[in-house]
Amino acid sequence: ARRTATSPPSRARQAFAAADDDCVALDSGSGDEGSVWTSAGEMAAQMLPMLPSVELSAEGVITAVVRGLQFNDAPVPDTGLERCFAFMDLACKKLVTGHGNVPKERTLEKFVAYARASPKVQPFVGALSVQFGELQRIAGTPTRGEIASMALRVRSPVSPLTHASGFVRGALGRGEIEQTFMIRLQKQRATGEYLVTDLVNVATVASVSRQLNSEVATAELSPEEPGDDAEAVRLYRLAAEEGDASAHWKLGLMYEYGRGVAQSSTEALRRIKIAADQGVDDARMYLGVRYENGRGVAQNNTEAARLYRLVAEQGDAELVMAAQWKLGVMRRKGLFDGE
Question: How far is CA 298 from CA 143, 211, 247, 294, in A?
Fold first, then answer.
């Protein structure tokens, strides 16, 4: 009966909002007030829906998943993880658990067992606080439903044995760590319900963004035979002549950095533009950074946003989050006013 409960999400959100307002002193470290917050949060968590529904908004799904994990054991152990199982699509379940390629690994019991130790969800379980960012939307198309995403700032307790810095706090007090995550949902065309498709630590996304911003692309420049750049250029050129878009991308980088060929930013840009036009997301992100910062091209925020949006709508999980991150930064800076 517990897993079929569908309490109105607005009631749960209102209850959490009231608990937040009444217990703002949680940050002061007061044990009594912290206990009040925990009790109020556990009560609110029990109102959260356990299954997707067409009546649930994107915000309602995010609230259900995130707050449910924060109070994972309300009303009984692992209720929050069971809720995740219902609200995540198969790809996200694989992302969270690292399992699920075979049917026997896709059961609720297996998911809960694997997810208990997953770094993707553990920061949310028992989190001291969660701050919800602004919901971002990308309109649906004839082939896919609307995409929604939100940044989440999570403050979690860290035991001395697991502190990220390796520093043992011991008697110095409770260890805490703050992390930012991006949660991404997609509206299912068949059912009209929102499902979670990605839950990614922004530190990973930021590292991708920093790599793009600094134009470090050594991983993309590794030829088939280490140290033989000229042979790599020859192979990339042959593949490009056969219409391989990714070969244009890699050949463009070889020209940009003068590896195995005379350096030519003009030829590099031409090749990378071909790759971007043919759907290579790495090339689109690379060009987006160029247009955003005016590196080697006329600065053009509109074109940068267009390229980021293309990646955000159809790229792989890591690049999608990087693109959404870039769009969010541009929007906050007032560099463009698109949705």
Answer: 34, 21, 25, 5
CA 72 to chain centre: 21
CA distance 294 to 169: 46
Pairing of strands 136-138, 175-187: unpaired
- Predicted pLDDT of residue 230: 83
- State both tokens at 323: 């693109």
- Which spans in 98-185 are helix H? 108-115
Between CA 308 and CA 281 the distance in angstroms is 9
**CA torsion sign, 293 to 298 to 303 to 307?**
negative
Q: Which amino acid, one-letter code, is at 270?
A: R
CA triplet 265, 268, 274: central angle to 5 degrees?
A: 140
d(CA 300, CA 335): 10
pLDDT tens digits for range 220-278: 444 343 456 788 888 888 888 888 898 899 999 889 888 889 999 899 999 999 999 99
Name the nearest CA neighbour of 255 among 240, 244, 270, 242: 270
**What is the distance between the terminal CA atoms of the chain, rounded to a whole angstrom?**
40
